Each structure stands twice: as C-alpha cells, then as structure tokens.
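go over my protein:
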Amino acid sequence: MERKKKEMIRLERESVIPILKPKLIMTLANLIEHGSDRTEFLKLCKRVEYTIRAWYLLQFEDLMQLYSLFDPVSGAKKLEQQNLSPEEIDVLEQNFLTYLFQVMDKSNFKITTDEEIDVALSGQYLLNLPIKVDESKLDKKLLKAYFNDHPRENLPDFADKYIIFRRGIGIDRTTDYFFMEKVDMLIGRFWGFLLRVTRLDIVFARKSSGQRKNDQKKDDDLNSEADQDDLFVERLRLEKMDLSVSNLLSKTTIQEPTFDRIIVVYRPAPTKSKTERGVYVKHFKNIPMADMEIVLPEKKNPGLTPMDWVKFLVSAVVGLVAVIGSVEMPKADLWVIFAVLSTVVGYCAKTYFTFQQNLAAYQNLITQSMYDKQLDSGRGTLLHLCDDVIQQEVKEVIISFFILMEQGKATRQDLDLRCEELIKEEFGESCNFDVDDAVEKLEKLGIVARDSLGRYFCVGLKRANEIIGTTTEELVLKAKQGFANS
C-alpha cells in the first residue's frame, strides 16, 4: 500500500533517563579498569541511593498523610474525625497539590499544553468518535485556586477542571484488515468530491479550516529551526493512505506515537447532598496520542455528530428530489425510483451502522484502558511516583559522578553534554540530561566541588565513600548477616 507524504510529529527530548538502574550501574562499573575501584564504585552507588531516599522520606510521608485525607475511598471519614473547618481543609488540600506537583516535576512529568493536545488529536487512530467531557460533573475550584497561587505558563484551557501530565514517548502499531474503516474512508472521499462539485464544501469550510490549521502547525513545527536532537515520530493513518481495489481486502499496518505515561488529576463536582473533597489521581500507560480522549474524566456518551445528521438530511433531500423528479416524468420508471430509494436508505444505514461499530470500538478501548492501560490510581500512583523520583535522581547523580571521575574537570555545560553522550554511546538512548539537579545533589553530598574557574571536579572513590559514611541500611544489613551467622 502506497502512502502519501509522510506525516511527522516533532517531539522534544524527555529529561527522564530510560535505563533501568541495575543495568546502568553494572554497565558503568564494567567500564572501570581496576577491580578495587569497581568495588568502591558499587559501594558508592548504594550509599548514594540510601542517602537520597532518606532525604525524600519525610517529604513523601507528608504527601501520603495529606492524601489520606483526600482519598476518594476513605478520605471523607478521616476528615470528619479531624473536626476541621472548611477553611482549614482548603489549606490542606492546597498543600497536598503543592507536594503532588513537586513530585510530578521531579519525576519529569510535564503538563500537556493546548498545542500538544491539538497536534495529538489532529488525527484518528483506533478511536473514531468525538469524545467530550461533561464539564458540569467536574469541580472548578480546586485546581483554579492552586494555579492562582502557583501560576504557570502554557496551561491548557481545561486546567481549572483537570490536569493531564505526560512523560515518555513510544510507538503503537496495529495491523488489521480495517475493512469497514476503508469503506467508510472511500465513501467519505466520494462525499467530499460531491461537496466540491455542488459547491457545498464552502458551507463546511470553517470546520475544515481548523483541521488545516492543525496540519499547518505540524508543518511549521517541522520546518522551524528545531533542536537537531529532537525526536521525530511518523504517523501512519488510513486517512493519509492511497487505497485501491487490490489492497482494500489486504491487511494494513497503522502507527501512532504514544505517551508512555499519563497521569490525570481531577475532582468531581459537588452535589446538593454531598460536598466532594476526594481528589482522583489516575495513572495510564502507552496511550496513543490520537486516542488520548480515553483517559479524560467524566466523558459524555458519544452520539452521532452534527456532520452525520447533515449527511442524513442532505441524503434524504437529494433522494426525495430525485424520487419526485422521477414520478413527475411522463413515464415514471419504478426501477429508477427503487434504485434511488435503495441508495439513500443504504447510505443512511451505512452511516448508522458505522456509528454503531465505532461505538463498540470505543467501549472496547475504554475497557482496555481500565484493565490493561490503567496502571494504578490514588495511593498506588503516589507510591510509584515517589519511588520514581528516587530512581531518577540516583541515576542522574551516578552518571554525573562517573563522568567527572573518568574524564576529569568539566563546566556545567560540558558535563551535561558528556552525560548525554555517555547515555547515547553505551545504552543507545537519548535524553535531555538534567545536569542542574545532578550537580546540586553531588554538592549536597559533598563529593563534588568547583575550582576557581567554576569547573566541577569530584573527590576519589574511597574518599567519596568516607564522606557519605556508613548508612543506616548498611548497618541493618550487617546486623542481619551477623544474626544469620550466629
């Protein structure tokens, strides 16, 4: 199957290091020449992790304690037991959001912007129905109050009702016959031809201009002077493919970039009988960009679109005019009338059954998102985020120290570049290394300093282990070993 011009999406590199920590540590250790240094390096990696984990322990405990008050399942009872005033509860929930957003930033999650969502939803993948959020069922005070106190740039229009965090980029491919989709696309192209012939396409120009704007936005993104290291991902959609009789019945592979992780935060709107205080935090994986609607909260039940109803009405009018014209002829041909009516009824039936098929596919996607793509929610998601923060910080610190140890002094910019090159050369991965956070932790640990020229340098491995000192975890492990040997 031949494809038209490639449809590419430019994405910024992620700051997250996509390498498992054990693999990272062992690979770097194996690059160290002397066995004694290798042993000291492995000891240092453990001590770095134990120390960073201890630094975050109190902050994470505060986060979990606050969330226990706003857990949608059991939070209401705990709030009642505290006997707090509404104003005091407002302060606590804002404190919880402050901790939550800090953890999200440390985990390298980003808030999706309107532009990102427009580009993501400018095409269709497996979901072919327009999905809308029932905004009347969502609280509009909680997030609005937070962003009033903590303003951010490029917030989406829906930021007062719900927030979508995203991290990581992947690829999803689906191979199938897509017979009904291909037939529907061919009919749609024929419909577009009729609109152009009858000049009715002018009526729908406003609708199509929005799509052209999105497509132009993507083209502008590609043509702009972007970072050469940005990630370019190709979309393979049926809408952009040339179909023929030969490949109509053959299998087709479509492709869509995915958000590797998505976290949605929102609160349901209060009702007359209940003041809602629960905060929902839902965690999803591998969500195709074009199908991102499946993670939206409080979705409306999809129905026929205004365009579908227009097609129904226009088809009915055209059919009625054709039938009346045939009847008024001196010799009315019943077969012509039957053919016209059959075509109109068939097209209307096709539109209806296509909708039913898309509705079934939508329900399957929602079920899949709940059972396969939803990783966790609430407390489970927060615990995952807390561990994720520690893993990322440990990897950043270890890589930075290794570079300074092996390659000597470096400016902050040079260190950033060297770390990214190491990740690329040894692991075949690309990321936007967060060198600022790494050197801050190294200086706090006391194992890296700056010379008179502002260049960073590290102490020796043995001295680094002495500076950090024996950690509580190591003492517990020694005590366990002693107890086992006794």
